[in-house]
């Protein structure tokens, strides 16, 4: 038997009811909100205004002069003693320069070359060192070593001369002896028959003969080079120190101490050179000090001399000169000339007290009557406000310096 189920359709969801306000009521609520915000804004602007007053105090340029000690033995600046700490600053540098030789001498060179000696006799011939050989041009040369010229010999029915090479040197210097290939006789063999049987012949030109004036290094040249670089050492050392002074430090010029550690030359006196080099190694030393220490002490010194006034740091100009110094002991005494713009220190609490809750016109009259004020400018918010705020924190004073 089949079961029968009744399926009921789901109930339709009830639609959400939307309530619409009449257009007039919505406009009314919008206007109420607008006027409420406007009223609050007016209230806060009225009750909590703000003002900024830019004040240019009267300024003047003042000059000061004081002594100052840079001392390597102290660690901190001392205003009472007018001293600041210094530091040793040492560097080594090598200076080199080329110099010209001034000496002159006559340089003579004798020509040299090789001769092949022929022997057409049947016996050998000994020729001692310095044996004379005379060219067909009449130029005399001498052998540089002892030789034995072998005897002639037969090859079959043909007779061949013995031969040997020997080095020769001209008897005199000069280019005249740079002769071309030639034949040579041996005067020492005359008047024997060997004179015509033993002779020499060159296949290449003689060379090296000369007679000329050349430049040489003198002791005076070396001493002048040494003196020149030694004189330059101080200038070069100070320049090197200045170029390598650490950032933030000051170097006192013209008091550097320079020591020559070593001197060397590329040549000796008597050498035939047109130019030579001289090199010196130096050690330069000086005192350096922090620029901040120097400027801070000068500023504090000036402030101690002008109670109730301030300085404009950007206008500070200093010029110092060395009165006395001892680099080895680490003390330098300076005379410092200073120029700076100063102005009266304004009592902001007093000013705010006098101008708060005052009409703007009253404030202007008051500020104009203050002898320490040169000019001013008042900016108030909101712009329609006529009275300065009662709250001191809502009044801002800005000091302006041209």
Task: Explain how this protein is built.
21% of the residues lie in helices and 42% in strands. A hairpin with a 4-residue loop joins strand 20 (317-326) and strand 21. It has helices spanning 23-47, 194-197, 219-243, 291-305, 348-355, 360-368, and strands at 50-57, 60-71, 83-85, 87-100, 103-119, 125-127, 132-135, 140-143, 147-149, 153-155, 158-160, 162-173, 183-185, 198-201, 210-216, 249-251, 257-265, 275-290, 309-311, 317-326, 331-344, 373-381, 395-399. By secondary structure, it is α+β, with helices and mostly antiparallel strands. It is rod-shaped and about 155 Å long.
Q: What does the secondary structure layout of this molecule look like, with pairings?
A:
Layout lengths: L22 H25 L2 E8 L2 E12 L11 E3 L1 E14 L2 E17 L5 E3 L4 E4 L4 E4 L3 E3 L3 E3 L2 E3 L1 E12 L9 E3 L8 H4 E4 L8 E7 L2 H25 L5 E3 L5 E9 L9 E16 H15 L3 E3 L5 E10 L4 E14 L3 H8 L4 H9 L4 E9 L13 E5 L3
Parallel strand pairs: 1-23, 2-3
Antiparallel strand pairs: 1-22, 2-21, 4-18, 5-12, 5-14, 5-15, 6-9, 7-8, 7-13, 8-12, 10-11, 13-14, 16-18, 17-18, 19-21, 20-21
The CATH topology of the domain at 105-213 turns out to be: Elongation Factor Tu (Ef-tu), domain 3
- How are the strands of the biggest sheet laid out side by side? 5-12-8-7-13-14
Which structural class do you get from the secondary structure elements? alpha+beta
SSE order in H/E notation?
A: HEEEEEEEEEEEEEHEEHEEEHEEEHHEE
Total beta strands: 23
Query: Distance N terminus to C terminus?
Result: 112 Å
Average pLDDT, to the nearest integer? 89
The profile of the biggest β sheet is: 6 strands, antiparallel, barrel
Outline type: rod-shaped
Number of helices: 6
Tell me the helix content.
Answer: 10-25%
Radius of gyration, whole Å: 54 Å
CATH architecture of the domain at 105-213: Beta Barrel
State the name of the first-level CATH class of the domain at 105-213: Mainly Beta
Strand residue content: 35-45%
Which segments are poorly predicted (pLDDT under 50) over 5 or more consecutive residues? 1-8
């Amino acid at each position: 038997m089949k079961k029968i189920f009744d399926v009921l359709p789901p109930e339709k969801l009830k639609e959400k009811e939307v309530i619409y306000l009449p257009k007039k009521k919505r406009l009314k609520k919008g206007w109420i909100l607008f006027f409420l915000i406007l009223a609050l804004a007016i209230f806060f602007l009225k009750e909590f205004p703000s003002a900024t007053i830019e004040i240019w105090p009267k300024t003047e340029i003042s000059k000061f002069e004081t002594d100052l000690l840079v001392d390597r033995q102290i660690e901190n600046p001392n205003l009472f003693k007018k001293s600041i700490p210094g530091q040793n600053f040492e560097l080594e540098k090598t200076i080199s320069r080329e110099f010209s030789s001034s000496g002159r001498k006559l340089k003579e060179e004798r020509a040299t070359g090789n001769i092949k000696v022929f022997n057409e006799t049947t016996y050998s011939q000994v020729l001692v060192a310095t044996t004379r050989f005379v060219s067909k041009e009449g130029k005399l040369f001498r052998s540089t070593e002892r030789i034995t010229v072998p005897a002639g010999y037969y090859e079959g029915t043909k007779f061949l001369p013995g031969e040997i090479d020997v080095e020769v040197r001209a008897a005199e210097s000069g280019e005249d002896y740079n002769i071309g290939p030639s034949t040579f006789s041996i005067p020492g063999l005359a008047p024997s028959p060997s004179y015509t049987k033993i002779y020499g012949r060159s296949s290449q030109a003689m060379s090296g003969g000369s007679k000329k004036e050349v430049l040489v290094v003198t002791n005076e040249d070396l001493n002048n080079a040494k003196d020149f670089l030694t004189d330059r050492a101080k200038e070069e050392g100070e320049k090197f120190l200045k170029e390598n002074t650490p950032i933030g430090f000051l170097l006192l010029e013209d008091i550097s101490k320079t020591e020559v550690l070593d001197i060397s030359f590329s040549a000796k006196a008597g050498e035939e050179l047109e130019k030579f080099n001289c090199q010196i190694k130096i050690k330069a030393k000086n005192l350096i000090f922090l620029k901040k220490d120097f400027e801070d002490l000068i500023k504090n010194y000036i402030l101690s001399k002008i109670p109730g006034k301030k300085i404009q740091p950007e206008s500070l100009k200093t010029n110092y000169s060395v009165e006395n110094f001892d680099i080895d002991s680490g003390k330098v005494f300076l005379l410092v000339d200073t120029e700076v713009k100063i102005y009266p220190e304004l009592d902001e609490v007093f000013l705010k007290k006098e101008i708060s809750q005052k009409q703007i016109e009253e404030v202007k009259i008051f500020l104009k009557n203050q002898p320490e004020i040169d000019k001013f400018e008042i900016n108030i918010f909101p712009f329609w406000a006529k009275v300065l705020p009662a709250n001191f924190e809502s009044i801002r004073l800005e000091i302006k310096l041209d």
